[in-house]
TrEMBL record:
Protein name: GNAT family acetyltransferase
Taxon lineage: Bacteria, Bacillati, Bacillota, Bacilli, Bacillales
Gene source species: Alkalihalobacillus alcalophilus ATCC 27647 = CGMCC 1.3604
GO molecular function, one term: acyltransferase activity, transferring groups other than amino-acyl groups
Residues covered by the N-acetyltransferase domain: 1-154
Xref: InterPro entries: Acyl_CoA_acyltransferase, GNAT_dom, N-term/lysine_N-AcTrnsfr
Length: 205
């Protein structure tokens, strides 16, 4: 296995790897047709086995604090994409990608990584094992049935009939909301502070 910088010609393989990696997760319908580009500098890594992209990691990072990340002081990097092809899981690929990214990030003067994920237990276990701390969460709420739509959405256009909707719930009654809608995911913010950082990090919740 080889880890290297992403190249433009990797895009098709990058997309395929991400789609397959997400199919059995809470992000199964979060499909991209092309790779994201970033306004700020980014660490973009891929893992290669036999000329196939089997893992990927994209981290957009700050040049000025709190322009991308929100949960700490110092300069942060936001993990926008991390994925491993399902045929290559449990081989330590994600951990190796993260380790390489941490080395690069600290050379660039970053102090921590921030990441958001949903409530897949095995994904959250991975973040915990990698030294990330859970610092915040809210709910992703999908309105997918006619009953959910009718009792939630009130519009001023009588001939416009919503079929689906997506919302953020940032209140305290999370369990109540989970009882009201069929598809609800907890969206969890993780933070990993680099242990050899010279800047003391204090979460700002």
């Amino acid at each position: 296995m080889k880890i290297r910088q992403y190249k433009k010609e990797d895009e098709t393989g990058w997309i395929r790897c991400r789609v397959l990696a997400f199919l059995d997760t809470a992000y199964f319908d979060n499909v991209l047709k092309e790779k994201e580009t970033y306004e700020n500098p980014a660490i973009e890594l891929v893992s290669i086995v036999d000329n196939q992209i089997v893992g990927l990691l994209d981290i957009e990072y700050e040049l000025k604090r709190k322009t991308i990340c929100s949960k700490s002081t110092g300069l942060g990097g936001m993990i926008w994409h991390i994925a491993v092809h399902p045929d290559f899981r449990r081989k330590g690929i994600a951990s190796k990608l993260l380790h390489e990214a941490e080395i690069i990030a600290q050379r660039k003067g970053l102090h921590y990584f921030e990441a958001w994920t949903r409530d897949d237990d095995w994904v959250n276990d991975w973040y915990n094992k990698q030294g990330f701390a859970n610092v915040h969460s809210y709910l992703h709420v999908y309105l997918e049935t006619s009953d959910e739509i009718k009792r939630t959405l009130v519009g001023k256009f009588p001939d416009l009939h919503p079929i689906q909707a997506f919302a953020h719930f940032v209140g305290d009654k999370k369990e109540f909301m989970k009882e009201q809608f069929q598809r609800v995911h907890e969206c969890i913010c993780y933070q990993k502070v680099f242990t050899n950082s010279r800047t003391k990090m204090v979460p700002e919740l």
